[in-house]
Each structure stands twice: as structure tokens, then as C-alpha cells.
UniProtKB/TrEMBL annotation:
Enzyme superclass (EC): hydrolase
Signal peptide positions on this chain: 1-24
SUPFAM superfamilies membership: PLC-like phosphodiesterases
Entry EC no(s): 3.1.4.46
All residue ranges annotated as the GP-PDE domain in the record: 47-318
Keyword Hydrolase in annotation: yes
Identification of the protein by name: Glycerophosphoryl diester phosphodiesterase
Keyword Signal: yes
InterPro entries on file: GP_PDE_dom (IPR030395), PLC-like_Pdiesterase_TIM-brl (IPR017946)
Cited Gene3D superfamilies: Phosphatidylinositol (PI) phosphodiesterase (3.20.20.190)
Keywords: Hydrolase, Signal
Amino acid sequence: MKKFAMVAFVIAAIVWLLNSSILATPPAGETKVLAHRGIHQVHKPDGVDEKTCTASRIEPPRHSYIENTIASMRAAFDNGAEVVEIDVHLTPDRKFAVFHDWTLDCRTDGSGVTEETPMSELKRLDVGYGYTADGGKTFPFRGHGEGQMPTLTEVFDALPHGRFLINFKSERREEGATLAVLLRIQPKWRKQVFGVYGGRTPTQEALRLVDGLRGYDRQSTLSCLGRYVAYGWTGLVPEACHDTLIVVPGNFAPFLWGWPHRFAARMQAAGSDIILAGANGGGDFTTGIDSADDLALVPENFSGYIWTNRAEAIGPLLSKNLAASNDSE
């Protein structure tokens, strides 16, 4: 019995040594902000499903920005975002419309399926039309979003120094192929594409066609994290975790072998970046780190990206915390 206990102790000690962050040097670099939809109007999350019109249940507005507009993206970068996440739909006239919803009825004064509507028609819509915080008594953004739905190429041209995480909203392979063609025609835009994600088929097609492009879908993320939990204690990094973007829900992170610094070093060596989401960031992985309390999920000296729905608050707060940390050293 004593011999068995000793063997168990030695094995446990080896596993601890292989995975303890106490003995690991954090990878170089500072925490970076990834702004979901730019700066936008947030909504109450309770009871939301795929059919919920979230524009009809926004919180009382704290600012005037509307998601996925060039103004909201510029504001996110001005508030310290390193990357802005945007949503795209390939329209019948072969333009990428930058807009979140599958249909137009919720947020705009139009109707119908976004990807089935020509960009010339989408340009005439008011993207702020449907927003209300008081059950429809007032609509504070009506008239302020007319003509504000941009194309992806307009985004690239307007914000040439910005970097974007592109969310394919469909499962159409041609979306990934069309993005690859755009980047081939205009190589200067390639450096602006931080990565792609969303629909598995277009995401994987874009990754196949664009050298060095990184991206993920729900299946690839679960494959990476699941396999790492299974045998990452050995120090081996699953192939699914190589050369990609790894979304880690904040409440799941402590269960990853070597979290935070040894895990981060392993992913960095595998050519991957970490995107830390909020607690319960499973499912579509879009729960954000959106408050000062949520920042407790972010490890000290974390060099990855944090996913937020409130870049206007988190960006300045993070900069303040980093400045205070540097002053204390």
C-alpha cells in the first residue's frame, strides 16, 4: 500500500511540475482587446434565442453607436481595441454586407433575408430603426442609421490600419472562396484580416485557400479544448490547437492543463492565439468580459485577447490597470 501511495505521489508530482504556472514564464506581450461588433448597444441576455429580436430589448443607451457600422468600429479602435469582430453576408450582387442578423426585420426598416437582398437595397436601409429600450415607446436611433450598412471592402478602405475577425453568418462555401478572391485581388487587405470564424463550411474554405489565415468554428474549438483536456497534461498540444485561434470560456479556463502561463506558452509555440471569453462563454462563445468584475477572469500578465461587448469601458479600464501595474514595478 505504501509503495502504491509513493508511486501515486511521484506521478502527481510529475504532472504538477509539467503543468504548474508557478514555474512558467508568461509569454511576452500585453492583454489585447477584441471588440465584438465594434462598440454597440447591448441587450438583456436572459431568454434570448435565435428568434429573439435583440434590438427590441436593448439596455438604456450609454452612447450613440450602432453595431457593425464604420463609426462603431472606429470608436472601438479609438478606445484601445486591437481587433474588431464583424459579421458578413454575401449578397446576390457579390458584395459582403457587414450586418449581424440573418433577416432585416428586427434592426432595420426593411424586411427579408439579408443574404438574398442586393447591396444596392441594403444601402437604403436605416440600420438603427428597430432599437428600443422601453418596449417600443421610443426608438432613439431611428433616422441615425440610414445608409450606414457598409460593405466589407468599404470597411477595409475606411480603416486601413484596423484588424478584423470576420464572422461568416451562413454555411455557404462560396463565402469563404469569395473572401479568398478579394484578398488575392487586393493583397493589402490581407493584413487587416486577423481571422475568420462562424459557419464551418465557409470558414474551412477560407482557411484552405488563404495561406497563413487562422480561424475557428464551434467544432474545431471543441475538438481543440476537448483533446487538450484529455492529454494536455503530458505537454503535448493536439493538432486541432495548432495555427489557430482558441476561444476559451472564462469559467472553463482553470480546468485547462497549465492555465494560464504554461498553457499560453504551449499555444504560442503551436502558432496559436488565445481569445478569452466571459464566464459561460460556451455555445456561440460570445459572452464577453464586459465589466470591472469580469476582468477578474483575466490572469495577470495575460498576453492573449479578451472578447468584450463593451470596448468603450473595458479598453480604457484595461489600459488604466496596465499602467498602474507598470508603475508599481
